[in-house]
């Protein structure tokens, strides 16, 4: 361990005799003098703690989302007349958003604020202040000592304005935790050319924002370990006191199999990185138009809608997290409203089963089927908005889109149904057909990938298979 991290200064040897399992609070209590030279009391003594409390940890690489390869193609079913049962449909559209009236009185123009750094963040033009001194900070020596020294320099810098600006943007534009992480990351690389120094700045700012983040050494590279309460698939994961921490940046797999870091936490930095997207960020509009065609019962239909490219780019940045994140995510309001108006035009007055099958046929036939590895070179679960954007998608993408549309249009209870190599959906409705039981209730299967299949028809190979997982839409 000593050899790996280079030559340590005498401060390391002074503190290395402390218990490696001590918390930061225990460490502070053990000191003979108080550290009071930082403006934030939480920083007092943390520099020395970083130089002494490190251990070796082994990585666990989380498995793939599917345990078996998904089918390359799925043979369509010969279309049969869907059942015409249930009450007549009357889809309720969301209330139109009314823009506030513009006051005629003259408003004094505020003087435009001048910032040291201006960033384009998914169409948002965001400005930040910087302390010129931090640009001279260097990671040296490339060891725990260097990390402690870098932390101390940042702690003594004028970081407060940038921190406040991040918090202001978070509130103003409804940024979720993942958006905040991406914003801090972009700011860090606007400040530093070095990846290691940029990551140390990210670590410093994120801990100040209350996120539970550790910094780790793998050989002489720097990595951040983020406490995440959900699963991130096919990523390096480490366990500390029953909590899981992930590397979510680019990494060298061979290097991160064994990392060195500290066990304790920065004081009051306990927040997990939450990937939930139940409320979309307020990003500038950059709309593109999509047109989809499909057939149902011998008739051809066309549905046209617009999408915000800035929002799609943000969604595309997501790592592969738990399915619940995608099934319970919000949709772009304008996109959904445009879809809902056209579906209402076609479905109002139909029997409920007929309307549900109409929407099912849209998801089945308006998009090509293509496995993620063949389209993207990797597994990629898409949000509903992304599935609407791409010309091709596979089973879980269609399941997410259909489930969200059914939930919002018809207000039925819906679940995702996951098998080892396939995903479908099921609806809590009183129809005949193939079904699954979830929480004591019978849910009728509706497969958005099985082209021309009506509700209650599932691919034969899955009819007698117990699903691995159910995903409930809240």
Describe this structure in words.
This protein has 474 residues and is an alpha+beta fold. The chain has two domains: 2-64 and 124-262, no CATH class; 287-472, Roll (C8orf32 fold), CATH 3.10.620. Helix content is 31%, strand content 19%. The protein contains 16 helices and 18 strands. Strands 2-7-8-6-5 form a five-stranded antiparallel sheet. A hairpin with a 2-residue loop joins β3 and β4. α5 packs across α8 (195-208) and α7 (177-191) packs across α8. The relative contact order is 0.13.
Largest sheet: 5 strands, antiparallel
Sequence of strands across the biggest β-sheet: 2-7-8-6-5
- Average of pLDDT: 89
Uncertain regions spanning at least 5 consecutive residues: 1-22, 27-35, 97-110
How many domains comprise the coordinates? 2
Shape designation: elongated
Supply Rg: 26 Å
Task: Give the end-to-end Cα distance, rounded to a whole number of Å.
Answer: 48 Å
Number of separate helices: 16
Strand percentage, roughly? 15-25%
Helix content: 25-40%
Provide the structure class.
alpha+beta
For the secondary structure, the number of strands is 18
